[in-house]
Amino acid sequence: MNCICSPAFQCPPIGKTTTHPHHKLPHATVTAGLQMTTTHHHEITHSMPSKNIEVIKSLEPWVAKSILPSLKPADKSWQPSDFLPNSSQPFDQFATEVQTLRDQSAMLPDAYLVVLVGSMITEEALPTYESFLNRHDGILDETGASANPWAKWTRGWTAEENRHGDLLRTYLYLSGRVDMLMIERTIQNLIASGMDAETENNPYMGFVYTSFQERATFVTHGNTARLAKERGDPLLARICGIIASDEKRHEKAYIKIVEKLLEVDTTTTMLAIAEMLQKRIKMPSHLMNDGHDTSLFSHYWAAVEGLGVFTVGDYANVLEFLVQRWRLENLEGLTSEGQRAQEYVCGLAPKIRKLQERNQEWAQKMEQHGVNFSWIFNKKVIL
Ligand SMILES: [Fe+2]
Ligand SMILES: [Fe+2]
Q1: How does DSSP classify residue 35?
Q2: Does the annotation count 141 as an active-site position?
Q3: Does the annotation count 343 as an active-site position?
Q4: What DSSP state is assigned to residue 15?
Q5: Distance CA 156, CA 79 (A)
Q6: How many Å lie between the centroid of ligand 1 and the Cα of residue 150?
Q7: pTM of the model
Q8: What is the pLDDT of residues 79-112, one digit of tens each?
Q9: Active-site entry in 160, 161, 233, 251
Q10: Catalytic residue among 22, 136, 164, 286
Q11: Which of 12, 226, 272, 376 is the most buried (most CB within 10 A)?
């Protein structure tokens, strides 16, 4: 999913109408992996039939009972200030804590900083993700403070996620190693650009997307935690680790929602899973732009892959994990279209791994090159 694999990517089969979400699935060639560029696709909106909206609404009591308890109240949650130098102590003590943070962050290589900044920017575009969830039919927060359990989940999830960007941002600011102005411009641009995950306002697809994404961010933050520890920055390791544990809890909730949908509406959910994978899961920050590097996202992504923070192999792992977790191979009672979707999804991971092998062969043949990142004062990172 870095720039090397783009030749293997192709647009998903299109030819859909705006009224029904379910389309033919490919039998033959499959190129799969993370979507990394903006492809031109027809904008499909509100594709979910009203009978499915009723299914979503019928789950409200279940969401209240089985999903909302996984949110943590503010007084039981960690907060960014738990991990950062305490600015309310006498200045000398505060300065000593900041100095320790800076001494440890001095060990981090530039490529690592680029990856961490990218994670932070992705977290900071949270307004985009809250409005993403609120675009899905049947789960809308109609008033902005609605008592509907779906709406409560979206707000509670957002409130928890909000701590991630705050914590990473403050850490990076105090480290003194990054160009905050360029980072802040990138965040402003990203929120203004938004994202189109192609979920068609359809919560079946939306929750497949969020299951995938939360698992992917769990893996990403877990790997940045491990690398920080290896590089001698235990504070940053704790920071990335605590964020990863939130992502894990959120992942579990979204996986449970899709599991429930599979139980009550098996074929529709199976088709939604196949549809999202066929389109490929887009990274939420794919529209990032710092106003300088026109290939910023692919350069950033090459750094992510280069450090092994998230690779095509990880994409296949996430997929395999979800296939097993949702027991997709054992689903029964599917229509023939549903069975085709099942076959497609269950056979996808090995194909992605093959694609990864091909990418690696390409990568070995390609010469390494340096890219300057504005986020780290235009220093060059070898990709
Ligand atoms: Fe997050
Ligand atoms: Fe998340």
Answers
A1: B
A2: no
A3: no
A4: -
A5: 15
A6: 19
A7: 0.90
A8: 999 999 999 999 999 999 999 999 999 999 999 9
A9: 161
A10: 164
A11: 272
